Automatic annotation (TrEMBL):
Annotated ranges, domain MbtH-like: 26-76
Pfam families (alphabetical): MbtH
Organism whose genome encodes this protein: Oceanobacillus iheyensis (strain DSM 14371 / CIP 107618 / JCM 11309 / KCTC 3954 / HTE831)
Gene3D superfamilies: Structural Genomics, Unknown Function 30-nov-00 1gh9 Mol_id
GO BP terms, alphabetized: siderophore biosynthetic process
Protein's name according to its UniProt entry: Hypothetical conserved protein
An example Gene Ontology CC term for this record: cytosol
Record lineage: Bacteria, Bacillati, Bacillota, Bacilli, Bacillales
Length: 94
């Protein structure tokens, strides 16, 4: 009986390990992760995991902090979704 229990336990652990390896996780949706708030030349914001290199054309505006703190930052600072280049065109037309 003990050997059967050990065998079942060993197989269960193997199966769980394989399941964990097969689960694809999206680093952009990790609620427990740390993020940067990035901004580009157009004044657009983006959340970015702190362990991934910041892409060219983007700069760190805030962080690293937790997901909700970064989301709050974006909500507070990104008041106008219109890209900077379109704002300039809009001003020049007026």
């Amino acid at each position: 009986m003990l050997k059967l229990e050990q065998s079942l336990n060993k197989n269960y652990k193997k199966r769980k390990k394989i399941e964990r390896m097969n689960i694809m996780t999206n680093p952009f949706e990790n609620k427990d992760g740390n993020y940067y708030v990035l901004i580009n030349d157009e004044g657009q914001y983006s959340l970015w995991p702190d362990f991934i290199q910041v892409p060219e054309g983007w700069n760190i505006a805030y962080g690293p902090e937790g997901l909700t703190v970064c989301q709050d930052y974006i909500e507070d600072y990104w008041n106008d979704l219109l890209p900077t280049s379109l704002k300039k065109k809009k001003l020049s037309i007026s």
